[in-house]
Amino acid sequence: MKKQIIILLLSFIFVSCSNKKKQDNRLSDKAVVTFVIKDLPKTHNFKDDIYISGDFEGWSGGKTPFKLHKKNNQYSISIPENAKTISYKFTLGNWDNVECKTNGNPIENRTYSFLKSTDTVTVNIANWSNPNQQNKASTAAKNVHVFAENFDIPQLQRHRKISVYLPPNYESSNVRYPVLYMQDGQNVFDEKTSYSGEWDVDETLNKMFNETGFGLIVVAIDHGGNKRLNEYSAWDNKKYGKGEGALYLKFLMNNLKPEIDRVYRTKTDSKNTGISGSSMGGLFAHYAAIKRPDVFGKAAVFSPSFWYADASFQFTKSHPNNSKFYYVVGEKEGEDLVNATNKMVELMQSNGFSKENIHQKTVPHGTHSESFWKTEFKQAISWLFINE
After folding, report:
1. Number of independent structural domains in the chain
2. Which range of residues forms the domain containing residue 250?
């Protein structure tokens, strides 16, 4: 009897150890990279916290789970693999204080590919951007102006800066123009206000006007800082909180658009009204054109963050319409983003959306960055507004 009990105990221990080993193996399958800040600006205050922000956490600018650990003035953080390639930057907690070049100009997004089970990456940070930096020259064209520094968003009890681009011949003509509403307005026109580089939208449209005579009004709405993720998603996220996209959309439709149409010579119908954004802004642009095709008949969707809201797929399937959609992604943004965009387009094409009104483009060397999106802007606008 004792012998049987001993055998049973030994069997139990063996099985337990085997299960633990299997569990450990499963855990070890998930790669981890540790980022270590090696060099910092001479003016860096070591009382400040540093955060990592990227596509793996919604480009929040700085959330508590992604605050670097600080020990003896050494900053570091370990990030588990959630995509084969991630894009990221370091901030002091918001996009006003993001890492930049020594002269204050933006740097490209950093990227990392998980090729090892464990890896360590050392990082040098040249400078931190400063919104009060006076020596940084504005790159906005003369036909860009600030429409409002603090435009009221009553639905969210917030205020936002609104900038407007007008075609070169606006003041000398009586023509009415189509309108494009763009998210992340800080990065649309001006290197001085951008945190990741600008899109050169004003320069691109000025050149298009000179070449073809095509004129477009662009309304750029600054993002909401630490509320950016919430405002650009119509769906709640367990990790990042309540979705406020429906309220933000009501603001665009009921408050901002009527005022833009009152002040400027716009073509007010949906056929001549577009919406655009990248990353989380791309998710919102997609949602807005799906939800209200009677208002936004065109959507330029760059690198959309469909990963943030799985509910966006069922929502899209249930709301087929005839709006025009232009999707562009880069292969270097990672398989997850590319595959999610492909899945969305396939879902639309098989569920009542017009195939001829959907254009999809995947760029081999495209990255999750303003420098990529600005190179694709002209083609997107041409397909949506000119190639009718």
Report:
1. 2
2. 144-386
